[in-house]
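Thought: the user asked what Short-chain dehydrogenase/reductase 3 looks like in 3D. I have the sequence; next I should run the structure tool and report back without guessing.
Action: structure_tool
Action Input:
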Amino acid sequence: MIIISKSRQAVPSVLIFLPTRTITMDSVDQREPTQILDNVDVDLVAKVLIQTVFSPFFIFFIPVFYRFQGIEFDSPVFIYSSIYFCVVSSFWLLKWFSRLYRNGGNILLAPKRLDWGEQIVVITGGASGIGELIANTLAVRNVTTIVLDINPIITENYNITYYKCDVSNWEEVEAVSKKIVEEIGHPTVLINNAGVVQGKLLLDLSPEDVKQTFDVNVVSHFWTLKAFLPEMIKRKSGHIVTLSSVLGLVGVAQMSDYSASKAALVNLSESLRYELDKRYNTPSIRTTLVLAGHTMTPLFSKMSLPSSWFHRFFTPSVPPYIIAKTVIAAIDEQESRTIFLPFYTNFVKWVTILPSYIRDLFQWISGADYAMEGFTKVSGKRPDERGELDSVAGSSHSKAE
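Observation:
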């Protein structure tokens, strides 16, 4: 059950109730509630540790407490606790400076929050999954939202405008972009979310499979950027969100085409960042790259995951609302970010430099190499796969009574 509610904050609040136990990802809605212990995973543990033993504000009081207890300054307990505080504080200070530098911030001035009332947000692949959730969440806050998809979005929000568009086709993107500018205005935020997965072994991929994967997952990003980025550069403001995957950093079995396409997006986003900063002289245009692990969306609804508590603890799946919330927060705070979700994905890029046997151990822990066994494609089927032609044409507007 999904409840999207309004709040007084600048960022929409989203309440989503998702059951947690699963052996196969056939249907998120069919999962049953579990005991509290089953909801404990490495992400929850990391959050608790970050707010306690790795929080400068928390550990500051440790040496202070010892001092008030009469411990001398030269006591090992006081010295070690003070050193620990300095180390942890230095880490967070460096991280804060890195964030400040990346976004051209000012030490003395807090960044200005985004005025959502003036934004026009375009979301590709917004008819389902993460894109649909972001679209509805923004629409609840009366943000002008545009969905580009080959399938219409089913919604009751009056301010979501749907245009039928195959974003892998430049002619369609160009035509729809002109219509958007004429009917609504120039988009200020572009969320490239459209994606498709074949879930086949490399030798089982047909030429049509490979072409569709790269057309939808990669080429569509070039077309939407060519259509909407020029006006952002002209105005020196905007935000580009690229939804990639942690599989863009490491490959797994039966996902060769998907992993390759997501790796392309990682480098596309990075190249775009440097072009905006160095060549177009528009560092104020923000870029956000999302590198998520397995997400509980229809795209991966037919994949199987290890059912043991061990695997679910260390490599949990990501509910769509977590990604939607994090993306909206980055846009709202007008910051360029690289988002890793869930927690274990922060370390994936470092696994590649480890000895092969250690890397294989992590690969086994994730269960990724066998997760696509028996996978059935349910999203993004081509006419030749469905056995019928897509008869939907034109563009339409989704309105609520």
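Thought: the tool returned a structure. Summarizing for the user.
Final Answer: Structure for Short-chain dehydrogenase/reductase 3 predicted. The two ends are 22 Å apart (CA to CA). Residues 207-235 form the longest helix (29 residues).
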